[in-house]
Design goal:
Blueprint lengths: L2 E11 L4 E10 L2 E6 L8 E4 L4 E4 L1 E6 L12 H10 L2 E6 L10 H14 L3 E6 L13 H7 L3 E2 L9 H14 L2 E4 L4 H4 L4 E2 L2 H6 L3 E2 L1 H18 L2 E4 L5 H12 L4 E5 L1 H5 L4 H5 L12 H13 L4 E2 L8 H4 L16 H10 L6 H7 L2 H7 L14 E11 L18 E11 L2 E5 L6
Parallel strand pairs: 1-4, 1-5, 6-7, 7-8, 8-9, 10-13, 11-12, 13-14, 14-15
Antiparallel strand pairs: 1-2, 2-3, 5-16, 16-17, 17-18
Helix pairs in contact: 2-3, 4-7, 7-8, 8-11
Bound molecules: (4S)-2,6-dioxohexahydropyrimidine-4-carboxylic acid.
Length: 430
């Protein structure tokens, strides 16, 4: 059994209220000790002085594109991108081809992940067959096969009775319903946020109301069914306010936001064109500030990337024709550290909690901590490392990021999954 000693790091495990300089001892696949000056013999010693040692990061919202869109990403390349970004667990969305709307597809994802994956991969099942919003999937059998949540992703379920029924089953079985909130009658034909910039650029824009109407509807459905609604990629000030209101009422709601929604605005469309086209769209500075406040006060529970790879030839089609989406796995940690933590807007502990045990608890999985006798999924972060984003060097197959050329401070330097080093940029370890 392989033994690894990670020495002298700042061990940060928010779930267990640990934040101290100490050592971590790993035997085989599990964490076996945490403490100061552990002098156990080890097959490898990792010197972590000046580094932050956190639980392996968890991204509860990514698109791995397999099956069906392997030219954009595969389970192999998407999970390589994840470990490059410090993640050891990802939950993948149902909008593949075929859609993840049957137990066979859930099994396919599990098998591919076992054979090709570098991280744990948790499939999210579709609420309706083919994401068409009409016929429902066999929800129970999807959950029983191992889907961690149900969602129609960008094809928001417009039929409120279907949403009522899936929320009622959520109340019974406990799984979260992940909600991409978009009133399609209001977003048809739009390519960016509705506001000053869309008017200047002459592009059709979508209002904050298009997102907030669905957030409000589904908060009410959660209240009246007792189900667990998880609001994906919150992007508006009003959305944050609605979720705050719902939490105060005791509604079972959790929420996530993405780095692109709390670091940049719709002004980036003028600079980057379709690379800044995403659903929901980049909003205004007022929205960005409300999201950051929502993260800091706990209204927004988790940080997820919505890693959405698309090929360069597709993004080159221009604002009207290009698909929406931004990749995020390899820039999430440095964006969160540089833009939220280093600026004093979010405590480091809270940022790590939102990328580890909180998303794990939302999904009901046993990850995201450094508890003794649990899986040794560990991420090492160098908070002082300065690096320029260079998408040409990404592990992802895709390059659709508006952050190319940004200098960011604080990068993941090692990712360990069940005791095995999956990515390392640390030199001179024994
Ligand atoms: O911009 C987006 N792209 N938002 C989503 O929710 C879906 C994603 C995709 O699949 O490309």
């Amino acid at each position: 059994m392989k033994r690894t000693l990670i020495k002298n790091g700042r061990v940060l495990d928010p779930k267990n209220s640990i934040d101290k300089i100490c050592d971590l001892y790993i035997e085989g696949k599990n964490i076996s000790q945490i403490g100061k000056n552990l002098n156990f013999s080890a097959d490898q010693i990792i010197e972590a002085k000046d580094l932050i040692v956190t639980p392996g990061l968890v991204d509860m919202h990514v698109h791995l594109r397999e099956p069906g869109f392997e030219y954009k990403e595969t389970i192999e390349t998407g999970t390589k991108s994840a470990v490059a970004g410090g993640f050891t667990t990802v939950a993948c969305m149902a909008n593949t081809k075929p859609t993840i709307d049957s137990p066979d597809l859930v099994n396919f994802i599990h098998l591919q992940a076992k054979e090709q994956g570098s991280t744990n991969v948790l499939p999210i099942g579709a609420i309706t067959k083919g994401l068409e919003g009409k016929l429902i999937s066999d929800w129970k059998s999807l959950i029983e096969a191992g889907a961690v949540a149900l969602s129609d992703d960008g094809k928001t379920v417009m039929d409120s009775s279907i949403m009522w029924n899936v929320m009622a089953l959520s109340a019974e079985m406990g799984f979260p319903v992940i909600d991409h909130c978009e009133e399609h009658n209001l977003t048809k034909g739009t390519v960016m946020n509705l506001g000053k910039i869309s008017l200047e650029l002459g592009f059709p824009g979508q209002s904050n109301a298009a997102e907030e109407i669905i957030i409000a509807r589904d908060l009410l459905l959660a209240e009246q069914t007792g189900g667990h609604i998880h609001i994906a990629h919150v992007s508006t000030e009003g959305g944050v306010a609605l979720i705050r209101w719902a939490k105060q009422r005791g509604i079972r709601v959790t929420a996530e936001s993405c780095p692109h929604h709390f670091t940049i605005t719709d002004a980036e469309v003028a600079n980057h064109g379709a690379k800044a086209k995403v659903h929901p769209p980049l909003r205004t500075q007022k929205d960005v500030e409300a999201i950051i406040y929502g993260l800091s006060e706990g209204t927004i529970d988790a940080i997820a990337t919505d890693h959405a790879p698309h090929a360069t030839f597709e993004k080159d089609r221009g604002m009207h024709e290009a698909p929406a989406g931004i990749i995020g796995l390899e820039t999430s940690v440095p964006l969160v550290l540089t833009k939220l933590v280093n600026t004093g807007k979010l405590e480091l502990n809270d940022a790590i909690a939102k990328m580890t045990h909180i998303p794990s608890e939302i999904l009901g999985i046993d990850r995201g901590t450094l508890s003794v006798n649990t899986a040794a999924d560990v991420t090492l972060i160098d908070p002082k490392k300065l690096q320029i984003v260079d998408s040409a060097k990404f592990e992802s197959k895709s390059r659709n990021t508006p952050f190319d050329g940004w200098e960011l401070k604080g990068w993941p330097v090692m990712t360990m999954r069940e005791g095995e080093i999956m990515m390392s940029k640390i030199e001179n370890n024994k």
